From TrEMBL:
Catalytic residues, chain numbering: S180
GO MF annotation list: dihydroorotate dehydrogenase (quinone) activity
Organism: Sporocytophaga myxococcoides
Pathway linked to the protein: Pyrimidine metabolism; UMP biosynthesis via de novo pathway; orotate from (S)-dihydroorotate (quinone route): step 1/1
InterPro entries for the chain: Aldolase_TIM, DHO_dehydrogenase, Dihydroorotate_DH_1_2, Dihydroorotate_DH_2, Dihydroorotate_DH_cat, Dihydroorotate_DH_CS
Subcellular location: Cell membrane; Membrane
GO CC entries: cytoplasm; plasma membrane
Protein name: Dihydroorotate dehydrogenase (quinone)
């Protein structure tokens, strides 16, 4: 029903407007008594064999929702009823910011992809915390943190530490996002020296807490082999808990979408969806093999089917996340992946 009826209707509306409309509709329907139970029965696959124990957390299943969908922690309770083993909110910045100019979200239907240049639009970390205080469902929450656009890279550590402190009591793990292509110069923080400084500062802050929480690094798919080697070295040296691979790509190679359409959209923005899958698998496999499986890798990028997810697990991923695939395929994708995993057991 989702792909045949609902999706074609939703795709008639501007992508950003339909995102907010969908949130409003989901919140409305979930106020109806029994609806949350219906979704759980339809999409939640409960089986001990699906559990994954990672950095002190027991994930009920290895399929999560990637950051970017529920930026401001407005829908995590409802989303948890759709079968996800965990939900990642954000990217959140210390201060609210509107993001980049519109239009900034584009569908490439022929490629089952999305181009976004949102620019960390969010209501700020404090607003998200107020919503997280109303966690009704037992769902694992990841907090994806970034810096404000107006903050220079030399001061970026302050922004990340601020977000970390404010969110600390309300999330189960943290993700350091230095890989979005939509905030000027942000990806420069992936270079060895600034990245080491940033992660080291956050680790020291984490260790000052009574009960430290896992910290993961989210990286871009466009890094060179040398860059990935540096990432592996830093993660091992600082004993960071894991890596999320990968964020969106700035590449536009191999797309089916007409070049005139791409020219109209422009070169700015990150591409997600099916065209990213092959590269994401390559990055996951490289990190796992080159590091000697020294740390967990959470895979994200172009997962539109259960078989796509299996590609990630075969490459060595411990968990997977979906985002664009969730938009194109609906919540049935979550249960399909979990059922496939049980079948492969």
């Amino acid at each position: 029903m989702y792909k045949k009826i609902l999706l074609p209707l939703l795709f008639q509306i501007d992508p950003e407007k339909v995102h907010h409309l969908t949130f409003d509709l989901v919140r409305f329907f979930f106020k109806i008594p029994g609806i949350s139970l219906v979704f759980k029965l339809l999409y939640r696959v409960k089986d001990k064999r699906l559990e994954r124990k990672l950095f002190g957390i027991t994930f009920p299943n290895p399929v999560g929702l990637a950051a970017g969908f529920d930026k401001d922690a407005k829908l995590f309770n409802e989303l948890s009823c759709m079968g996800f083993g965990f939900v990642e909110i954000g990217t959140l910045t210390p201060k609210p910011q509107p993001g980049n100019d519109k239009p900034r979200l584009f569908r490439l239907r022929e490629d089952e992809a999305i181009i976004n240049r949102m620019g960390f639009n969010n209501e700020g970390v404090e607003a998200a915390v107020e919503r997280l205080k109303n966690r009704r469902e037992k769902v694992i929450i990841g907090g994806n943190i970034g810096k404000n656009k107006a903050t220079d890279n030399v001061d970026a550590v302050k922004d990340y530490k601020y977000g970390f402190n404010v969110l600390f009591d309300y999330v189960d793990y943290f993700v350091v996002n230095v890989s979005s292509p939509n905030t000027p110069d942000l990806r420069a923080l992936q270079d060895k020296k600034p990245l080491t400084e940033l992660l080291s500062s956050l680790k020291d802050l984490n260790l000052s807490k009574p009960a430290p929480k896992p910290i993961l690094l989210k990286i871009a798919p466009d890094l060179t082999t040398g860059d990935l080697d540096d990432i592996i070295s830093i993660i091992k040296e600082l004993k960071i808990d894991g890596v999320i691979a990968t964020n969106t790509t700035v590449s536009r190679s191999g797309l089916k979408t007409d070049q005139a359409v791409l020219d109209q959209i422009g070169k700015l923005g990150g591409l997600s969806g099916k065209p990213l899958h092959k590269r994401s698998v390559e990055v996951v496999e490289y990190l796992v093999q080159k590091s000697g499986n020294a740390f967990p890798v959470i895979a994200v990028g172009g997962i539109h089917s259960a078989e796509d997810a299996m590609d990630m697990f075969r490459a060595g991923a411990t968990l997977v996340q979906i985002y664009t695939g969730f938009i194109y395929e609906g919540p049935a994708l979550v249960s399909a992946i979990n059922k496939k995993l049980l079948k492969e057991k």
